[in-house]
Specification:
The structure is a homodimer of 264-residue chains. Chain A has 264 residues and is an alpha/beta fold. Chain A folds into two domains: 2-154, 3-Layer(aba) Sandwich (Rossmann fold); 159-255, N-(1-d-carboxylethyl)-l-norvaline Dehydrogenase, domain 2. Chain A is 43% helix and 14% strand. Chain A has nine helices and eight strands. In chain A, strand 7 (127-131), helix 4 (134-144) and strand 8 (151-153) form a beta-alpha-beta unit. The longest helix of chain A is centred in the middle third of the chain and has 31 residues, at 156-186. At the A-B interface, helix 5, helix 6, helix 7, helix 8 and helix 9 of A face helix 5, helix 6, helix 7, helix 8 and helix 9 of B.
């Protein structure tokens, strides 16, 4: 299988690293910027280009790993034969956005957080796949197995829900880690203090539902400690408002515990 | 060293488990309720009681691991000699609350989340210690080394700040995991999908500052995706309000990035 990678950002970079140690042949890398194309191309020893018209015409799969907002433009500029199989890697964009460029299209969305400096092991990464024909879905599944055993077939709507859930599982908790670090540093205490706690909290929910392992002042309805904490943050500071808001969410969720399926 | 454990809740239970595999001798366990005292006592093969007046009089250390709200009453009921060394395990209570029961007192606060069903390895757990004399602080440090190498000496005020930071590092993220689970289950998708993401997010901040690894629509200021997500949650639902609130916090934090130390 011969693959062309369109995009050399965080996702593209990690895909390229992984492909180079797999049995799939990465034949070309494109990036809008010369330096990104060159850096990644030289790193993985794959030819690179910054010109979409120079894309290899006969690859089996074109993976477009660019930011959502850049997808429509890139698609309109691609000049491949319409029988070339193109997928994007985006959670937030629909599959149909690719229709302008090909008759064979799909989505290969790896559900993980990618930072350029942090290595990714794909073996455990859930891959959310979609394609416009059963044949290409099968082809995409075969390709995906080179990355991970955790393969999920889902349509665009489901994938968008997964992306939304991922914001709550990743981006928001990470922001709260940042608040925790700020609070500690404000008192000249090291962030190291809470790192084992962060790890343990994440590990617990690998086996148990978060609802079952919720601890802390809000889940104990310990209003004395809650008031102390808000005082400590300084009433009417942004962090005190954040603390109050999240505490109220937990208190509400306790109150709703026995109600049938109520998200509101 | 001979230790008496007062309390058989989550913290007490894990302390007892650990002590039984250490060189410290746990000589007695007290719990208010017969069933808790018996369950833990039989499990670790240590004598137990539900009567505070029956506490062994000559232990080297009395660890009081009871909920904050129960501490004052238990202290007033203890009838030990005033030269017995008593510590509590609470983040939220001051050390001085123990003064009523003894002239030698301190705090042994293990900074971890304890669930009865989930084993705890103490070797990496930060222990926050405090004592009212240098001699007893040294004794407490010796005791703590049986648990962990990560020993922090800090006064009550610092410990309360650590506890507050822990709420942001543990309780609030865990609640957000719960929201993520709800969103997925609402669309009949498995929570398994985001588990690797949760783990990776927690592992990243073990080495890098959360600020450096923040990703997602808010940190990209991707207002199109943010609006889509809020629509998907249903405008004016509790989860949409939560999403908006946290997104605004992240946007504000980007705007404040270059300001000097501003928590507000």
């Amino acid at each position: 299988m011969r693959v062309v990678l369109v995009g050399a950002g965080n996702v593209g970079t990690h895909l390229a690293y992984h492909l180079c140690s797999s049995q799939v042949k990465l034949v070309q890398i494109w990036s809008r910027t010369e330096v990104s194309a060159r850096t990644l191309g030289e790193r993985v020893e794959v030819p690179f280009t910054t010109t979409l018209d120079d894309l290899s015409a006969d690859a089996d799969l074109y993976i477009v790993a660019v930011p959502d907002h850049a997808l429509p433009e890139i698609m309109s500029l691609l000049s491949l034969q319409r029988d070339r199989f193109i997928v994007h890697t985006s959670a937030g964009s629909s599959m149909d956005i690719l229709r302008i460029a090909s008759d064979r299209y799909g989505v290969f969305y790896p559900l993980q957080t990618f930072s350029r400096t942090h290595p990714v092991r794909f073996s455990n990464v859930p891959l959310c796949l979609e394609a416009n024909t059963a044949g290409d879905l099968a082809l995409l599944k075969d390709f995906a197995r080179h990355f991970s055993r955790r393969i999920y077939i889902m349509d665009t709507e489901k994938r968008k829900t997964v992306h939304l859930a991922a914001v709550f599982a990743n981006n928001f908790p990470n922001y709260l880690y940042q608040v925790s670090e700020d609070i500690l540093h404000g008192e000249k205490l090291p962030f190291d203090l809470v790192k084992p706690l962060i790890r343990e909290t994440a590990m617990k929910v690998q086996r148990q539902s978060p609802r079952q392992v919720q601890t802390g002042p809000a889940s104990r309805e310990d209003h004395a400690i809650i008031s102390q904490h808000i005082e400590r943050l300084g009433r009417d500071t942004a962090y005190a408002r954040l603390y109050s808001f999240l505490t109220q969410c937990i208190l509400d969720s306790l109150a709703n515990k026995n109600k049938p399926h109520d998200h509101a």
